[in-house]
Amino acid sequence: MSAPMDDPTLLEHAHQSIAVGSRSFAAASRLFDAPTRRSAVMLYAWCRHCDDVIDGQQAGHDAVPVSRPQAEQCLARLQAQTHAVYQGQPLSDPAFAALRDVVRRHHVPRGEALDLLRGFEMDVAEYRYRTFDDTLQYCYHVAGVVGLMMARVMGASSATTLDRACDLGLALQLTNIARDIIEDARVGRCYLPERWLQDKNIPAQRLADPVHRAAVADLARQLIEHAEPYYVSAQAGLGALPWRSAWAVATAATVYRQIGVKVLAAGSHAWDARVSTSKGEKTAAVLTGLWRAVSSRWRRWPERPARLWNRPRPVGAAAPGAGREAAHASDR
């Protein structure tokens, strides 16, 4: 059965998901107006559920090994359930009922929902990231497209604003990858470009070895430096959002930027414990986010730099440049 549009149990489920899965996003989401917050947390609940299913974890924690055949079966079920959302078929999972609610309210395209699942498919297929452009492709699928869907929840529809929203997703995911390099390596995953590893003479299967920690810290620095222009680009899109949405987005960006700063400061010790922000730092981020949201209303922003990677366009839509043509100099 499908839950009705205003079923309070869906929202309760979503709030529980975000409270356990992401304290940073939970804090930022409180800054939205009530209708936007409702849809944002429900979209988060679906994204979190799909990630957990593929990784064999609960709310982003305590991942357990999942065999490739098992993961492929899980992915197929997620894809079928997502198609069911758009085809109006009965749903029993609250995460997918929440997605249907968001889709109906905000007209989220089916292609964007499926693009997120393609990111999980890259994990299941153990995709190899040879260049930084390949890494950005992954970042788009697991985070950039989430930025697109969240922007639609906030009422955005112009291609320019959606580009900036995608850029924030890319920046957040690059920061995540830098923070989680060693944790990911221990479960057999590596999102660093193979060319970068080759330059440092690091075998991918030995990435977590302490002997490589200084070199890994340098690779994390490169990721965080590459994230910065995407954070800047995202800032330029705040003015197109309702002011409370802009405040929430700016706050989330500030929190994640701070995580990147901490990874840089910790150097080779960045993976001794999971890097996070304190309650006081989150409070400061709320104030910084408010200032950035307000100032975005009158500040003049330059055009989005052509060198940045460009999100995929729907068939027939014009793109400012192919992502691969905008590959970074570090890949050459």
Count of beta strands: 0
The gross shape turns out to be globular
Give the CA-CA distance, first to last residue. Answer: 53 Å
Main sheet attributes: strand count, strand direction, barrel closure: none
Order of helices and strands: HHHHHHHHHHHHH
| Radius of gyration from CA coordinates | 19 Å
What would the average pLDDT be, to the nearest integer?
88
Instruction: Supply the CATH class of the largest domain.
Output: Mainly Alpha
Structural class: mainly alpha
- Tell me what the CATH architecture of the largest domain is: Orthogonal Bundle
**Number of structural domains:** 2
CATH topology annotation of the largest domain? Farnesyl Diphosphate Synthase
DSSP summary: helix tally: 13
CATH superfamily of the largest domain: Farnesyl Diphosphate Synthase
Helix content: 55-70%
How large a portion of the residues is in β-strands, by DSSP E? under 5%
Low-confidence stretches: 1-5, 319-332
